[in-house]
Amino acid sequence: MGSTATRWRQLSGENDWEGLLNPLDIDLRRYIIHYGDMAGASRDAVITERKSKNYGQPRYAKGHFFSKVGLEIGTCKLRSSPGLSSVMGYVAVTTDEGSKVMGRRDVLILFRGAVLGYEKLDNPKVNLHWYTYYTNVEPQSPHNKSSCGDQAQVAGRELLDQYNDEEISITITGHSMGAAFAAQTAVDLVGNGLNIIKPTGMLPAMKACMVTAILFACPPPSILGPLNAFSGLENLHILRVQNKYDNPNEHSDIGIEVKIDTSKSPYLKKALQNVHDLQNYLHGVAGVQGDGDFKLEVYRDLALENIYVDGLKDEYNVVARWWTEKNKSMVQMDDGSWVLMDHENDDDDDDDDDQACEAEYKKPKTAIYSFS
């Protein structure tokens, strides 16, 4: 992302990505993939084993979180689910070194897609829109006294206040259900004026920071919730990546669209089978061409395509659905018995802030939850 520091405003949509989409700008490809990887990390570490008492919880402590999923950043948890708390996403802010790379201090809010059974829209037991997951509260819960959306806004606002004398932005990203959450969070932040910064000093001028949402496989408006306020909001920019054959008649039309078509990829078998998968989307961003052909313009490991699916052609010798914890988190005790140990408490995180922040984003100080 060598040009990000000088082009970040353009890449974040200050001019609504004019001149960058067809053909897709090389720096914008990297930028979109960067944030897509962040959204993917939120799924990679959630516990999906139904037999676990920690079902829906984060697998790793904050200080270990992104290093364990191959991304060296820290996180702040967001929670939401019907009837219990489950990790939904994270909030992070760039380190000093990361800010130099990104061209400014970037507050990142990211949301995962639907991976737990009760979250999926084809589950007949799901009779509430995802928007309710975003807004519901549970006063009796130690984690969910305010909604997922409110906690995301508060966490973002606190980071803006902490770095109010710096060049700063908020970037929000998510996949599928997470894209719906990301879109709503972006609208709420700007609509409620939470992106307004008051620098320190005697008579500081008020200023608004840019808020950008980068969405993957964003669902239709009937699921997104009340986004009517999007139109006319200043300093809010939404970029939506849409795969051609991924529910072509049932996706959102919010924001500016980046069209991809992974059916053109020569690397994939049964190319129409996994068109909703996030890694499939990022593969598409790496290779989409303005003329409809496909050629990888930026390096992206092909093995990532098979994290959760069997998408690559067999000639590449990459095993299918390879993302799994060793022995599915079964650990042998001293007496020879085996016990499921799939969750690290934040108390297990013994790294200090500097040690945990070797790359672009800082380790967070708080966790954010929701309940529905």
What can you tell me about this protein's structure?
The structure is a single chain. A seven-stranded mixed sheet has the order 1-2-3-4-7-8-9, sandwiched between helices. Strands 5-6 form a two-stranded antiparallel sheet. 47% of the residues are buried. Residues 123-127, 348-359 and 363-372 have low confidence and may be disordered. 25% of the residues lie in helices and 15% in strands. Helix 1 crosses helix 4 and helix 2 runs antiparallel to helix 9. The protein is α/β, with parallel strands linked by helices. The protein contains ten helices and eleven strands.
Task: Tell me the radius of gyration.
Answer: 20 Å
> What is the mean pLDDT?
78
Uncertain segments: 123-127, 348-359, 363-372
Number of helices: 10
Helical content stands at: 10-25%
What is the string of SSEs from the N terminus onward? Answer: HHHEEHEHHEHEEEHEEHEEH
- Using the alpha-carbon principal axes, give the shape: globular
Sheet/helix structural class: alpha/beta
Outline the biggest β-sheet.
7 strands, mixed
Range of strand content: 5-15%
Q: Strand order across the biggest sheet?
A: 1-2-3-4-7-8-9
Instruction: Count all strands and give the number.
Output: 11
> How far do the termini sit from each other?
39 Å
Write a compact overview of the structure shown:
By secondary structure, the chain is α/β, with parallel strands linked by helices.
